[in-house]
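Lab notebook, bench 4. Still working through the backlog of constructs that have no structural model yet. Next entry is a single chain of 719 residues. Request: give me the structure tokens for it.
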Amino acid sequence: MRHERSGMRLAKFFIPLAVAIGFAAALVCAASALQNSSDHRVLFEKAKFTMETKGDLKGAIELFEEIIKKYPNERDYAAKSLYLMGMCYEKLGERQAQQALLAFQRIVEDYPDQTDAVNMAKEKLARLTASLEKALPRPTFRKIRIPFELSEWSGGHLSPDGKTFAFGSENHIWVVPVQGKVQPDLAGEPVMIQGTEDAWAYGMSWSGDGKWIAFNGGSNDSDFIYVTPASGGTPRKIPVEKNRAGGVATPYRLSLSPDGKSVAFCSFESKESKKNQIFVASVDGGDLRQLTRDGGGQPCYSPDGSKIAYVIPPMNQENNVPKNDVWVIPATGGSPVKVSDLPGQASSPIWSPDGKMIAFTRNEEWSSLKKEICIVPASEEGKPATSPLQIKIPFETQGTYDALLGWTTDNKIGLLLNTPSLEVVYTVPATGGMALQVTPSGYAIHPQWAPDGKRIYFRWSEGSLGFVPSEGGKLGLHQSIGGGMHSDFFISYPGGGNSLSPDGKTVVFSGAKRISDKGKLGFDVNIYTVPVDGGEPTKISNIERPNQARYPCWSPDGKWIAYQAGKVEEGKEYNAIFKVPAEGGTTSEITAEPDKVEYAYIDWSPDGKSMAYFSKEGTLNVKAIDGGLPRVICRVQDIDGHSDLSWSPDGQKIAFVSRGKIWVVSAEGGEPVALKTDVDARADKLDWSPDGQKIAFTGSSGGEKELWLMEDLLPLVKK
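Model written out:
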């Protein structure tokens, strides 16, 4: 009993004590929870005090950043912290303007639910961007004179320090000092890098330390990526077993990692998909990784090697106009981030030396003319801080995907620009002599004599049918035979043609009609006729995609139109020449697979019995319309899709264009003779006059590659 009473007394003592202790503990926990819930407020007030009272802007930035990282769920305070952090950067001066832009942009993108903060951030972005663009000076452009010609596909890239320009010529890689010993704007002596035989110049890349150069190379049957010491030596061959066919410049642009150990390139995902993706390969021949899944081309490593900028090919269309943008993806793979969102097509992305900016070229609509350079600040994740700064190029540059050659450590951007191009029509005696310019300076293409010899017709500008008196004179416009390449119907290129009917009343051409194919934009390319004096085009061929009908010409009697198109027979794909009644109808084949027809212009003989064409064997051939084996007339160098030819009216000779010159050869065969023209222009499309006394041709000038430097870059992009 005594023990029970004792236990009861102890219980009466300890139970209240335990209750008291538990209550006290609960109070402590509640107080702790209350304190934890207000920690972000306390830290926020401390950051504001550091910013406003102490004036320690850098210290305040650190505290605001701590709030954002430590309390991500307190979104209102995180957004407020970002806004005040942006104001701190803004007060630190224009060299920190980029960080201010990034802070305000983060609010817009990451905190859309914080309406007040977003609206204030947008006002700041607009005001800050406008003031920066107004206050900052524009860059200058300086041409570097190179005392030799850069070929069409010479490629080219500046070394990271900007002192050396690498380019391709004669199947080798060459390097030349940007500043020679004579004067600052004159390049030095070029030196060929030994061991770079069979190099394809376009798409080359330097490593970040300037010790290595990556380039494409190989034969017609295979292609590889090589990495060679910039000072010369044995190149390393990277066994890239991917499908990189399907274009020239775009699929072959390379980017060597800063340490020279990896190379980024684009390739078809598979033979079936025909869709370019970004891949990374080890220079030592090790792993091969696919980075992108939604398409990609023209990769460029960031200076620290952690990211790759690239463009997605123009698959997306806005109002029938191709549009693509610059994207950034981690070099190890991951989710890509879009950097630019502008109309038209972005190309040639490059990074600033500090990795905080991305520059790229942009052209509008379907034009291949690069009209401006865009520069956009990018965050550590690659996100843009604001809209790109747009800088006009001194003159439009035609069609190169490597227009930007690198952003050097001394804050210059290298550009490979083309001189302004002109295409005018000349006439010259059929025996050679002094040429006469008969059209105004502009873009007069594919001249055709009227049957009476009094006029010369040609394609002018955006598909208009122009004409001038045969001795030259006032430009006249008759008929639009297709809009520019941004329209729904335009003249195909190359092979669009502009052949005038024997009675001079109708023009035949190859027209491309924009169509939708399984949700993707495609082109139906067929043969059309249109009255010279106006009217709607009439489709006369019926070639189904993916084959296309091009290079049309009239028969001498005006009853038939010949053209070239692809054909598949017993698993073999080849080009063939067809004929169709001038009003449309059943087609018949003039040539077959053994005739080896090359993708280039064709012409009917004046008697209507034969067809002249270029062959894949590198020859000019003539074949009878009713069959038989073709006759080889002569060998022709450098046949391509723009090669043109024309019979003399008496059928005794054939004129053709090769390597920018007009050549004349006997229709029976023999050695061609170059026709003297005495004009400083490259001869292109041509036509013999009805009386046989003259030849009209398009003379093309300009378009030469030149090395330029964009200097005095904005303080916004200075280190």
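Notes after review: The radius of gyration is 34 Å. The chain is about 15% helix and 40% strand. Flag for follow-up if needed.
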